[in-house]
Amino acid sequence: MTTAFDQLADRILSGATATAEEALTVLRTPDAELLGVVAAAGRLRRKHFGNTVKVNYLVNLKSGLCPENCNYCSQALGSQAPVLKYSWLSKDETLEQAGAGLRGGATRVCMVSSGRGPSERDIDKVVEMTSALKEAHDGVEVCACLGLLKGGQAERLKAAGVDAYNHNINTAESNHDNIVQTHTYDDRVDTIGKAKAAGLSPCSGLIAGLGESDEQLVEALFALRDLDADSIPVNFLMPFDGTPYENTWELSPTRCLKILTMARFVCPDKEIRIAAGREMHLRSLQATALQVANSIFLGDYLTSEGQDALADLEMLRDNGFVILGMDDAAFDELIEEHRARAAGRVAGGCGSSCGDGCGDACGGHDEQDGPVIRRRGAGTDVAANA
């Protein structure tokens, strides 16, 4: 039976674009009809991306100590969240962390630092890191996320070999001042424009669960379409204790799936990345969400732990996906390598939740409802979850 969503997919495949009203209809799909709308959006995903999943890896170059008051952020001014706080990683530390992600199956390394925006000395550091990373790993993509850019900085990053620049709009313009007051929505749009003008691939997305209305979610997605973002990370609020959004739980797995499905209809040929909060909010629907999204982060996030890297890879394989740029034999070999390491951890460590082994640094892992603070990888002596 052909549904209205199939007809919408037909029109988009023929070159039309979704309207705001149609996007709202997708977002408000009754749960009983959800698989039908996912199947229709999945046609768009397969048209442009087949069954590939792009795997990205985050390296937090500088954690905490941020002067901006983004209310949702565990690193922001005023946050009491007990996250890791450290200044810039060295070049060698960055190469070590990035290498773990690349060996784990990632093809893009996202180098992120907290702060309002980079100084010229900060740009120097990222230039040096990028050059070393490109020399050590042939074909690696580098995305920088350093905050608000000043004139000429994007050009320097581009000349150094940086491929993309991430700066999320995070929410609709009409909701922006409710979530941060130390910079404006226009400041964020200006940085995306600087990145595009310099020839960097623009990466910009949103955070769902910030008290926005359905209409504001649609507003944000259409803004990203108008900005022509090549990749769109869709984050789901992680309500860290010690932030203004602690104990804020607005999302359900089906709500998150509808948001991603709407994003595919609105931006059919763009990289839709399931980003922070996917494990917590999508839960058992993570694999279903990849029927419309085509990109994930492997392992941990900036300040919180993610799903074990082996579980990520097995989820992709079990559901018929392949990693972009990797053939089946290499994918099988990668999973077996992860399984062998996991077996060693179970025998001598505290289990697969600890990345490559905790050693003496691990104090145990208590079950909790909120985000698990990252205590491994960048800024620690514990191996990364990759």
TrEMBL record:
InterPro entries: Aldolase_TIM, BATS_dom, Biotin_synth/BioAB, Biotin_synthase, Elp3/MiaA/NifB-like_rSAM, rSAM, rSAM_sf. Transmembrane segments: none annotated. Binds 1 [4Fe-4S] cluster. The cluster is coordinated with 3 cysteines and an exchangeable S-adenosyl-L-methionine. Binds 1 [2Fe-2S] cluster. The cluster is coordinated with 3 cysteines and 1 arginine. It comes from the Bacteria. Keywords: 2Fe-2S, 4Fe-4S, Biotin biosynthesis, Iron, Iron-sulfur, Metal-binding, S-adenosyl-L-methionine, Transferase. Pathway: Cofactor biosynthesis; biotin biosynthesis; biotin from 7,8-diaminononanoate: step 2/2. Signal peptide: none annotated. SUPFAM superfamilies: Radical SAM enzymes. [4Fe-4S] cluster binds at residues 66, 70, 73. Pfam families: BATS, Radical_SAM. Its cofactor is [4Fe-4S] cluster; [2Fe-2S] cluster. Belongs to the radical SAM superfamily. Biotin synthase family. Homodimer. This is Biotin synthase. It comes from Nocardioides luteus. The lineage of its organism: Bacteria, Bacillati, Actinomycetota, Actinomycetes, Propionibacteriales.
